[in-house]
Design brief:
This protein has about 300 residues and is of the alpha/beta class. The protein folds into 2 domains: about 110 residues, ornithine cyclodeaminase, domain 1, CATH 3.30.1780; about 180 residues, Rossmann fold (3-Layer(aba) Sandwich), CATH 3.40.50.720. Helices cover about 30% and strands about 25% of the residues. The protein is globular, with a radius of gyration of 19 Å. The model has no long low-confidence stretch (mean pLDDT about 95).
Amino acid sequence: MSIEIVGPEAEALLSWQGLCEAFEAGHRLPRAEINDLFLYRGADTLLDRAAWIDGLGSLVKVATVVPGNAARGLPSIHGAVNLFNDQTGVLEALVDFHLVTKWKTAGDSLLSASKLARKDSRNILLVGAGTVARSMISAYSALFPDAKFSIWNRSPAGAEAMAAADGRVTAVTDLAAAVRAADVICTATMSKEPLLKGEWLQPGQHIDLIGAYTPAMREADDEVMRRASVFVDSRATTVHHIGELKDPIARGVISEADIKADFYDMAQGVYRRSSDDEITVAKNGGGAHLDLMTSAYILAMWRQR
């Protein structure tokens, strides 16, 4: 059996709605087994993420993070995605690492927004002007075709560059005012200190927290977590691993019981907002099981081409 090589050209075959449907289908299967392995050499990291979902398959996603590559004129992150057959364990496909990561990350937050954001949401604020923010413009536009985007970045030049490249995007410098005016707020930064303050929030808003992915990182302050109904993509990859939850839980600001649902609760209908005035927060923690669902969806679309 030949191994499929699925490159970035597969992106033309994908849709955000199709990926969200694949995520929902994947979470109706038995709960995933997941594990991560980290190796370090000074500032360099080797990350090995694995997942197995009975009925779907298994995956190993390997990434190297070498910050010094910037001085070499090379990207800092490289990786490979290996997708294995569920029944035989045979290596079925090598799927483009960056394609999987892009669609997994943005699709994760899009699925939350489809369940938690008000259906009439139009004003979307992006906090952070990196690669993820650009992906979220594409993803949110599939759900909210009339959306208008504002973008705030710690360095205003980054926001201005993104606005110059896309007529739907307006750069802003007053973060508090932009938060108050938004229907959906999406944070995608590397911040270790909260940028988003609960005192700015308005009834009915939805907040997608993407960026803070280590115990030392926070994008939202304690008041955000107190005021909002808190949802996560996966309790297993967020509660004890990510500062957005681990820190306020450890200090008694919120409790683990305050997390209303994760994606495995979608089938019971509880991953949803309960009123138009409710403030909702979704923490995007990722996880290899979502890489697996994304890779299986990409491979299926590639085979149908």
